Amino acid sequence: MIRRPIFFTATGTDIGKTHILCALLKAQRARGQTAKVLKPVLSGFDAAALETTDTVRLLQANKQELSIETIDAITPWRFKPALSPDMAARRSGQSLSVTAIADWCIEAIARDRPTLIEGAGGVMSPIAEDGLNLDLIREVDAHPVLIAGGYLGAISHTLTALRVLDGRASIILNPWGETPVPIEETRDAIQRFAPRARVIIFNAEQPHELLSVIDGNNSD
């Protein structure tokens, strides 16, 4: 049986997708298991500062060798402009279609372990010139994991994103920055209006909740 991939997206940019995904990869390794990680498209790629790129952070968290081959295997589309992928591709003189990305992801999905895919930007951000992260999630039939925050306005942003995901997703709240109310209160409010979604709070010291994202969605 081919495991259904798990797609990490967010309510917006700089919410903490890569940080949380790295923590999940480390927790998976700590219990003696591995996952395959993919980040098919990356904007803002600077070959002179590899250590700061999302792809290299994911490789390191997954204890994979750092080489041009392993970078290619995780992120085949890399663009220097720090813009949405469609704009970055255009400025780099390249075309980028959601079908090409989806076909690559489907080919790369592991059969023997979970495959974790990180998108680019928010769920409704363009990931190609003809498609959004939402379209890619549907094309690869992935279970969506929505990363959200606890800032003022986070409830509206999260419920809006969840609506386009048909109400079915795992939600991880990242309690970074200023939070106007306890993050537990934000979780409870989201859960009240999104009964079909599962809402957890990110805590790197309690990896069992993070791992439940994998354990609860590891097959068709």
CATH class: Alpha Beta
Cα gyration radius (Å): 16 Å
- Distance, first to last CA: 8 Å
CATH-defined topology: Rossmann fold
> What would the average pLDDT be, to the nearest integer?
93
Helix/strand class: alpha/beta
Spatial order of the strands forming the largest sheet: 2-5-1-8-9-10
How helical, in percent, are the residues? 25-40%
CATH homologous superfamily heading: P-loop containing nucleotide triphosphate hydrolases
CATH architecture descriptor text: 3-Layer(aba) Sandwich
Annotation field: number of helices: 9
User: What would the principal axes of the Cα set say about the shape?
Assistant: globular
Number of strands: 10
Major beta sheet, specifics? 6 strands, parallel
- In total, the number of domains comes to 1
Oligomer: single chain
Give a description of the structure.
By secondary structure, the chain is of the alpha/beta class. It has one domain: Rossmann fold (3-Layer(aba) Sandwich). 39% of the residues lie in helices and 18% in strands. It has nine helices and ten strands. The protein has helices at residues 17-30, 54-61, 68-74, 85-91, 98-108, 133-139, 154-164, 183-193, 207-215; strands spanning 6-10, 36-38, 41-43, 77-79, 115-118, 126-128, 131-132, 143-149, 170-174, 198-201. The strands form three sheets. It has a six-stranded parallel beta sheet, sandwiched between helices. Strands 3-4 form a two-stranded parallel ribbon. Strand 6 and strand 7 form a beta hairpin. Helix 1 runs parallel beside helix 2 (54-61) and helix 1 (17-30) packs across helix 9. The protein is globular. It starts with 5 loop residues before the first strand and ends in a 5-residue tail after the last helix. The mean pLDDT is 93.
